[in-house]
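Dear H.,

Thanks for agreeing to be a second pair of eyes. The structure we're designing against is below in token form, covering all 362 positions.
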């Protein structure tokens, strides 16, 4: 190339740069518009919630006064339930402030995932992460049952500390993004981090040798339960996604319900088995605590395992009660998720058609 050709190339590129500038300006304007729309959505959402709370209170006082349940009252109650589920789904499309825990760990970085598809991907990845780590923990637990090698024990326990700690962060991100995960399951992982941390600093003495095998069996067992949980949770996730793409909502929601109960009936016996194992561990540790060489770790672990047992039992029974009694609420929740998903699919479809049209005219 001589200098004239280079100059010509540069002039050509200048035209391309002008195009880039125009696109970027358009992008910046749209971003600003998105910010304004998000603010307006938030305002309307708060307005809906405020007026709904007034209406719900008024309904309560009407309900107290009336002797028989009015048909209109029942309809309004159902409508409120439906609207609440829809508002939750709308809220999930808006950016949210980080929780205090995330602010401390990550700082004020934005972790809101606004696209529902990316949200599903993040949840799916979280479930796969749990599965892979459980498989590694299973192998290490079995190896520790076969070999008495302190570094291998420490590797496994350290892995557990890191694993549970990571789960607390991932679950906080899921929560910011609209997950309905119960507070206890999150707290459960905070407590599990503490339990693993305490076991990590437990010196290699006689009480540890007495406890070691029970603990390794427990880790192997919950890794298997984790595999079953993975199958259940990813089944729920993919079925919910499929639900959004269908048209005959009622049939698919019925199908989802019966699948969910089938999945739960396989999983629940194993979960209860795990909770009984936790009770057994608390009892074993209590007995070990009388050992003359017992250190403080044993005393701290007894109430922690007992708390895990009691709260797990309580939460799971409450979840089951809600699932059986709150059938209608669950239905509305599913319908709202499916409705929003089908909306998003429609938007994507429209975009795809537009792009196709533009390509044709070009
Ligand atoms: N860990 C992480 N997330 C959980 C969870 C758990 N243990 N239990 C429920 N969730 C999530 C669900 O994925 C769902 O998320 P989403 O809103 O993003 O879709 C949300 O919380 C609401 O779930 P819910 O409808 O209440 O329950 P479910 O049908 O998804 O699951 C159980 C019910 C009982 C199967 C589930 O809670 C569970 O497996 N619990 C046992 C956990 C345990 O004890 N582990 C230790 C074994 S020893």
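And this is the sequence the design step returned. I haven't edited it by hand at all.
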């Amino acid at each position: 190339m001589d200098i004239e050709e280079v100059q010509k190339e540069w002039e050509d590129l200048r035209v391309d740069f002008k195009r880039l500038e125009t696109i970027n300006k358009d992008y910046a304007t749209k971003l600003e518009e998105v910010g304004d729309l998000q603010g307006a959505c938030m305002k309307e959402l708060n307005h809906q919630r405020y007026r709904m709370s007034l209406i719900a209170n008024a309904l309560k006082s009407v309900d107290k006064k009336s002797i028989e349940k009015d048909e209109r009252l029942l309809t309004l109650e159902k409508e409120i339930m439906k609207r609440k589920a829809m508002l939750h789904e709308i809220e999930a499309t808006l950016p949210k402030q980080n929780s205090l825990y995330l602010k401390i760990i990550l700082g004020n970085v934005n972790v809101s995932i606004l696209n529902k598809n990316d949200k599903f991907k993040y949840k799916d990845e979280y479930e796969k992460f749990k599965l892979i780590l459980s498989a590694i923990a299973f192998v290490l637990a079995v190896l520790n049952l076969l070999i008495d090698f302190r570094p291998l024990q420490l590797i496994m326990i350290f892995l557990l500390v890191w694993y549970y700690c990571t789960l607390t962060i991932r679950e906080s991100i899921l929560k910011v993004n609209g997950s309905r995960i119960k507070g206890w399951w999150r707290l459960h992982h905070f407590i599990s981090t503490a339990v693993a941390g305490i076991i990590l600093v437990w010196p290699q003495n006689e009480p540890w040798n007495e406890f070691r095998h029970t603990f390794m069996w427990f880790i192997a067992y919950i890794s298997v339960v984790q595999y079953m949980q993975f199958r259940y949770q990813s089944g729920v996730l993919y079925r919910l996604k499929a639900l959004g793409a269908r048209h005959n909502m009622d049939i698919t929601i019925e199908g989802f319900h019966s699948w969910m109960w089938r999945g739960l009936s396989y999983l629940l016996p194993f979960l209860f088995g795990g909770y009984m194992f936790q009770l057994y561990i608390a009892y074993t540790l209590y007995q070990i605590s009388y050992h003359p060489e017992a250190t403080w770790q044993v005393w701290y672990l007894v109430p922690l395992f007992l708390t895990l047992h009691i709260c797990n039992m309580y939460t799971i029974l409450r979840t089951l009660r809600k699932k059986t009694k709150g059938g209608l609420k669950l239905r509305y929740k599913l319908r709202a998720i499916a409705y929003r998903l089908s909306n998003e699919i429609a938007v994507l479809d429209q975009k795809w058609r537009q792009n196709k049209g533009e390509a044709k005219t070009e």
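Two observations from my side: The CA atoms of residues 243 and 346 lie 14 Å apart. Residues 123, 174, 179-181, 185, 222, 225, 229, 232-233, 236, 267, 271, 274, 312, 316, 319 surround coenzyme A (CB under 6 Å).

Warmly,
E.
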